[in-house]
Amino acid sequence: MHVPDGFFNAAVSVSAGAVAAAGVAVCLRGARRELDDRTAPMAGLVAAFIFAVQMLNFPVAAGTSGHLLGGALAAILVGPYTGVLCMAVVLLVQGVFFADGGLTALGVNITIMGIVTVLVGWGVFRLVTQLVRGKGGVTAAAFLASLLSVPAAALVFTLLFWIGGTAPIEVSAVAAAMGGVHVLIGVGEGLITAFTVGAVLAVRPDLVYGARGLAAPLVLRGPDGVTTVEPAARPVAAGKALRPFLLGGVGLTLLLAGVVSFFASSSPDGLEAVAENKGFIGQATEHVMSWSPLGDYGEVGGIPVGVAGVIGVGVVLLVAGAVAHAARARGQAPAAGDDKVKV
Amino acid sequence: MGAGHHHQLYLPGASAVHRLPPQCKLLAVFAFAVVVVATPRERFWAFGLYALLLAAVAWAARVPPGHVLRRMAIELPFVLFAFLIPVIGLGERTTVLGLSLSVPGLWAAWNILAKATLGVVASILLAATTEPRVILLGAQRLRVPSLLVQIAMFMLRYLDVILDEMRRMRVARESRGFEARDVRQLPAVARSAGALFIRSYERGERVHLAMLSRGYSGRMPMLGEVSASAAQWGVALLLPVSALAVLGLSL
């Protein structure tokens, strides 16, 4: 899935590069909060682990095998900030040292496979763990999170391709094909992520970042019958810290959508001509709802370029809203836990 | 990084390209890729000249063509996709060898093939002539955040250790009769992945403590400053500047 050079036009490559750089910059600060001066060795070793685990082939069905993307797994095991950093470094190393993925497409690759998979994976994971408590909840959440993160990345790829791709392809067909294939890949990703998280949870539950709230408080019983309860180690408060990340992300996406759709509309390609002929927003939105590969040629592809930007921002807002909700819920969770400990 | 841990792509050598400071090479390759991507796809001969430029660099660096060709297999999935575009593309159609192909689709396929291939070859030449550790020093000189460079350094340094650990676990699994046939074997593979994570994480903790005991305070000491003279910058920028000249001529 590493995008090579020449796949996207210059405007999308540069905008995605800006998004990736901003995301990585925020995560560098956030990871310092998660790991302080351990950041460099820990994130480096986890990045090496992600690189290794991406080479681990697992059987999907008779004869075929798949491999892990690892974004959701990284987010659940080491936290979202460190997760994005690790994925970004893995992609950087693959691009520069292994010629895997184009240098000008580095921003696109980091945005899609690093930031989107981690954000979607972490958002879904937090939502599900809020609803279902306990170890079973963590495993189920890990499955759903990584299952959804893969098609989400594929759809963002399709969206970028629609805005600034260099090929005249029916976008709904690409979206359907990419989405369909990646749901299947996502099931594999989900299964192996859930089993892996379960395995770590069984041996070293304290190492699973996403399950830090689960640790039971330490109860000390003294010789004279005095019982003291040590509160469980509290996860790093990320409620407020996440806000600039989200705001920055939304702002940059707006910029991306606005600037890029402007560039895209000035480039002479097949989509534009069709858009001029058949661009009815009302009809177009109807067709967006039915992502059918058999939809009329042209009309789905002919959605005015501005609508693409709006849809893009909508998707990001949904994801951001999910993450913000999860973060807020998470800020309150330890407080409730403390009360129980005092009682 | 101990001896014998060079990555397959790096070819030790002492050519003029090998001796250039890493930051010059990084910037040159990156600028070259940008120029290639910005070239209009109708200018066939410009892409031919770019390929000649890269061939000249490969000749100067004494990188054998076979080494580059073998590594180019990495772009195969996208080449397959590029061949699909004319079949499923939109727009006016033409008939080639009995197949109905889209004309804009053919252009798009050519665009992706040409630019991706040039980009991959440029990256391969960079990786073949520069040690990974030195590339990172160059990145640091180019003001890439030092924490990011440190993370990448640790990753490269321990990559072979982690990969070896994974290999040992696979040998252990297989010597006990394990064979991954279908989904039912997934839990066993995943448990190995979980064990690998715990081992990596704990190794990271040990490495951090070892660093602390040697006086680590958040910054890595710079060993062997890599500085570039104006002449070296000039030599390195020959590649993107001549590519830019080609682009200027073609417009």
Automatic annotation (TrEMBL), chain A:
The entry's keywords: Cell membrane, Membrane, Transmembrane, Transmembrane helix, Transport
Domain PDGLE as annotated: residue spans: 243-326
Pfam families: CbiM, PDGLE
InterPro entries from the UniProt entry: CbiM/NikMN, PDGLE_dom
Domain of life: Bacteria
Subcellular location: Cell membrane
Membrane topology term: Multi-pass membrane protein
Transmembrane segments: 6-28, 40-62, 68-93, 105-125, 137-163, 244-264, 303-324
Any single GO BP term: transition metal ion transport
Entry GO CC: plasma membrane
Name under which the protein is recorded: Energy-coupling factor ABC transporter permease
Organism the protein comes from: Nonomuraea rhodomycinica
Automatic annotation (TrEMBL), chain B:
InterPro entries: ABC/ECF_trnsptr_transmembrane, ECF_CbiQ, ECF_transporter_component
Entry keywords, A to Z: Cell membrane, Membrane, Transmembrane, Transmembrane helix
GO biological process: cobalt ion transport
Subcellular location: Cell membrane
Domain of life: Bacteria
Entries under CDD domains matching the protein: EcfT (cd16914)
Main localization, broad class: membrane
Keyword Transferase part of the UniProt annotation: no
Bilayer disposition of the protein: Multi-pass membrane protein
Entry's Gene Ontology cellular component terms: ATP-binding cassette (ABC) transporter complex
Transmembrane segments: 20-38, 44-61, 73-90, 110-130, 142-159, 230-249
Protein name in UniProt: Cobalt ECF transporter T component CbiQ
Source organism (scientific name): Nonomuraea rhodomycinica
Upper taxonomic lineage: Bacteria, Bacillati, Actinomycetota, Actinomycetes, Streptosporangiales
Gene (UniProt): cbiQ
